[in-house]
Amino acid sequence: MYISVIIPTYNRLPILQKSVIALEKQQLTDNKISDYEIVIVDDGSTDKTLTWLTENKIQLPHVKVLEQNHQGAASARNLGVINAQGDTIIFIDSDLVVTENFLQCHADALVKGKQDLKSDRLFTYGAVINTNNFDNPTSEPYKITDFSAAYFATGNVAIARKWLEEAGLFDTGFQLYGWEDLELGVRLKKLDLKLIKCPKAMGYHWHPAFNLEQIPKMIEQEIQRGKMGVVFYKKHPTFDVKMMIQMTILHRILWGILSLGGSLNERTLKPVLQWLISRNQPQLAEQIARIFLNWHNVQAVYAAYNSTID
Predict the structure, then answer these.
(1) Among candidate residues 267, 268, 265, 270, the one with its CA nearest the CA of residue 290
(2) For the whole model, what pTM was predicted?
(3) Rounded percentage of the chain residues whose pLDDT exceeds 70
(4) Which of 106, 199, 249, 289 is the most exposed place for a label (fewest CB within 10 A)?
(5) Do the beta carbons of residue 230 and residue 301 sit within 8 Å?
(6) 2-206: what CATH class?
(7) Domain positions in the chain
């Protein structure tokens, strides 16, 4: 198989450098993979991403660079697929750093899955481990909060190109944050593709340690995710999608109770969050912040949905 690793990026140069260098150091132990390329789709970055890639192209022999104006992840991934050479596509995010056997593990799992299922209607999903450790991201241990029940998520997934093309690629109508990959997953599931877990294909998702300055952006992302959730539901009006986007009475009750009707919010919880951060507990602070972040998300979902029926 020929693998095209597709990485959309937007102003993430420091961690993108680590991601690309890790992919250039892949150890292939057999002939399952004939070759691979790293397709970086720059989505209008302004942080010298293109300059670094150009200046280091000799040290990055597998890298192919594509450019577009800032149009979002769905459009960037589609551009990558259209211009990829591979028959097999691996999607990762530009803040994911992989181990040296990453590609081999995906290839092994794809071949074994095909043999076990006696079908090629499958894709593999690797492990995604969240970390704040920029210097050595792959040293982070797996945590229970790293578990994902998603069927198809583009943080670490390998799939035959033909299935993406048959499903219709990503819907570029998802122009804000969230849901474009899971919506494609709904269409892939209708093609009867099976999810094969591949925990040995490990990717370490880096993001800076939680701090109070991040909260406005995180709230805005939850609002955008709520709006895009309604776009998702309008395309696939099922109970499963309603559960995914938190558009049920259960979610309104749950986050309403936990947030005390919204009174436990970014303002009232600020002293608690700062106290935890000052005691080197940013992960716990972030989990507590999820109370009001989810409340913002649920409120945004219903506001967006109600605006479509008024």
Answers:
(1) 265
(2) 0.93
(3) 100
(4) 249
(5) yes
(6) alpha beta
(7) 2-206, 212-309
